[in-house]
Amino acid sequence: MNLISKISAATILLFSFSSCNAQIKNTKTESVKIYGNCEMCEKTIETAGSVKKIANVDWNKDTKMATITYDSTKTNQDEILKRIALAGYDSDKFLAPDDVYSKLAGCCQYERVNKTAIVSTAVIEDHSMHNQENVVETKQEVNQLKTIFESYFALKDALVKSDGKLVSTLAKDVLANINSVKMEKLSSEEHTVWMKVMSSLKSNTEKIAATTIIEKQRVVFMDLSANFYALLKVSKQDYSIYYQNCPMYNDGKGANWLSKENAVKNPYYGSQMLTCGKTVETIK
Amino acid sequence: MVLQNILSKKLLPIVFLLLVSNNISAQKTVRYDLYVKDTLVNFTGKFKRAIAVNGQIPMPTLVFTEGDTAEIYVHNLLKEETSLHWHGLFLPNKEDGVPNLTQMPIKPNTTHVYRFPIIQNGTHWYHSHSGLQEQIGMYGNFIMLKKSDDKTFRKGIDDLPTVPIVLSEWTDLKPENIHRMLHNANDYPALKKNAVQSYAEAIKAGHFKTKLKNEWKRMLAMDVSDVYYEKILMNGKSITDLSIIDGKELKAGDKVRLRISNGGASSYFWLTYAGGKITVVANDGNDVEPVEVDRLIIAVSETYDIIVTIPAENTAFEFLATTEDRTNSASLYIGNGIKQLKSSQPRLKYFEGMKMMNDMMKMNGDLDDMGMNMSLNQMDMNVVMYPEITGDSKPKQSDNDPNRYNANALADIVTLNYAMLKSPNNTSLPKDAPVKELKFTLTGNMNRYVWSLDNRVISETDKILIKKGENVRIVLYNNSMMRHPMHLHGHDFRLLNGQGANAPLKNVVDIMPMETDTLEFNANVEGDWFFHCHILYHMMSGMGRVFTYENQAPNPLITNPKLAQRKLFADDRKFHFMADNDFATNGNDGMAMLQNTRWSIGSEWRLGYNDMHGYETETHIGRYIGKMQWLMPFIGFDWRYRKMGIDEQEENLFGQVNKKTTELL
Q1: According to CATH, what is the number of the domain B435-550?
Q2: A95/B412 CB distance under 8 A
Q3: How far apart are CA B523 and CA A58, in angstroms?
């Protein structure tokens, strides 16, 4: 009896020993930078990167350097870094998906030095248009406003997602785009409307940017959408835009917004009442 | 007389010359030589057999311009027969490439020439139509460009930098083996995918009742796909960098057009992009009005043309093709610089799916749509399993919400469905033509992997006669538990999707369980045209029909029609072998079976290790009856032997004694 228990104890010891020392064969060790902040990050990074018997990741939160050890016949650095990025952490090879990053805990929202800002299409098209003077003038007129409309749509999408932080950031984009409009390049029709709505557009967006409380942002968004509607009516775009209405918002008085998609995604209620509403006008 | 002679002598060559020169100026002949050869590939660390054409997988991309004549020489260097089908092309029937139907198979060490005029444009693909060769490498891009003076040329779309991509999957298992395992309801793929859905898992997820009901209805564990694949490939690679197109480096603001064909044998793929929205501009080689979406699913053998934009400097954005069951994916990084990833799609909620299927299936195997009229992929029953649409655990919407399967109503992302496709042109059929309406119910039996139309496989039916000039309308209803991409050869059909005269033209329609779809086409090219499910293993099981024109001229390539038909039918009449054996302390217990669509020949054995344990074997041959095949009358024989010691005879309840000490029948 005694002997049996001794043997089994020895066996258990043996097993536990081998399991905590899960050997990686054909090892290769490298040191790479992974962006992050705290101990919580460390845990996420190491769990995401490590695979039993294939790869092991050890990250240092002070130096931001990770020591990765892996079986070079079974995996490679890219695969490990990709898994870590998919868990929310940038490296010099991969950028984490934005939605995963934004779900990280507050203390883990590290500074994303490797991310390049999304450039608005207008700037690019300006470059490519330099050699065709005739086209430049007319194109730019459309594009200046197009940039603003695009930033409006991004703002609207963030409202649909009920993400107050994102809405505030995007409102700053809209404001920047409004400020950079060169009025002399607008068509006369556009110019007239622009003069009417410009100051309220500015104050609307400033208000939205100033808060992260989604309810407050939505109230201002009503006004903003009305002004954008007026502007859009006189400015020709190369795709259809849908003017949509939610009959319930604003104490049952209803509220409108603009969308590039015919399918209704309600920015006033988000997931609470996502498809409430209908298209009232299609602007071509 | 003399004059006539001179005339004919002098004029003839002139006329002849005229004709020839005319030909040269009118059309360009584009020739490709394809050498089909056995090869070994290593996608997973192990060398496996595959088929390469001109030394590569996928097969070379073939490019033509509308108006060209294609001349494709196929040199078969394999030890087996082969064929090539030009998917979605309008061509004479004898060039369609279906062995034993439109031509005889290309024998080993022979050359076959396909020659046909290119009379359309768009993104298509080509593949072997012989056996399971498509699974192991025989697929490739087939691109037909618009002429530069084409009236339908779209600025900002047709002049963008373009890359053709054929999607496919790779498995280390031999395709014949997969086919056999599917027919015997093997758990192997589910084990590999960690998707077995055992009782233990069910209890953990609080779905014990769901699992019990599922077993009672004799359903197999729920899944959206049957086969486990080790690798997903885009043009033969699971990771591709796309930083240069036509010698020009991609930069921020650039738009790229991807011509995507799904050359997978049985996988549907979700397409998503890290750099924003995807603009869909064509489907199955036909232009559609541009439509912006967040994601789309591409059915087996469909093609989509999409446009993506590179939104930032110094960044490559991930374009992701993920299998429908989300177990695997392939990536394309578009642009230069650090790689911006797209979040991977979360794991499926299998028990929600199982519950949904339980609710839908009646005991007789029919599906119950509970009063919802479903079509055009707008309602996706599978959304109950998608965490990104219905949340992470149990669904919150109620059981009678009319939108409970409508992905676009449930989430803030836009998913493409067929109702959103609109042709830029009027596609209506000739008004005065007679209409022939045909109805098919898609049927299947998951346990025995029998897939059919109206419960009949190809070999059990006659060809369907249609008349040249008439409009053929087909109504499809899917009464099986899987989705099926139904493909028509040689014609594009209009999918009636609520867009009126601008209904989109397609040659594949994906139809989900319980959906009804209507399609119509004008019968304008004589021949024998295959209409079948494009999931390779469903097609090989006999899920299809052949359309044929009344009083058509015989196909010169089919010299012996009787023989050809027998060989065609052999595909779904094939018997599949299975065996299992239980090694127990008191003997061996096992069975072996040979089965096909209707017949089963089986043998069981119970063999002891000595005479005292006894031996028994039983053999029977039977035929499965009815749609669900729950009954199988059979005849057979039984042989037993067991030697007991003296006075050891067991007596049963009725006082009977076993006297079988020698063999008895």
Answers
A1: 2.60.40.420
A2: no
A3: 66
